[in-house]
């Protein structure tokens, strides 16, 4: 029997999260700032909306359809002017 696990989501209408031993993924609407923190490598895609990522002091304005690969240990924070749909894949 396969160890694969499948998940179903309705593309942002409800939060979605799944986690394994080393990797996690989530998709959620955000509107509040995400304060400065460091973590493992992270891939973030903005599905809808806009956001401002500050990564190691450098500012990146992102819009729906854009994404960013954040290296492990980088200090990052986010600001949003309106709700944005984020899709994240990250190492624990």
TrEMBL record:
Naturally occurring in which organism (per UniProt): Pseudooceanicola batsensis (strain ATCC BAA-863 / DSM 15984 / KCTC 12145 / HTCC2597) (Oceanicola batsensis)
Cited InterPro entries: Cupin_2, RmlC-like_jellyroll, RmlC_Cupin_sf
Protein name: Cupin type-2 domain-containing protein
Superkingdom per UniProt: Bacteria
Organism ancestry: Bacteria, Pseudomonadati, Pseudomonadota, Alphaproteobacteria, Rhodobacterales
Domain Cupin type-2 per the UniProt entry, residue ranges: 37-79
Pfam families tied to this protein: Cupin_2
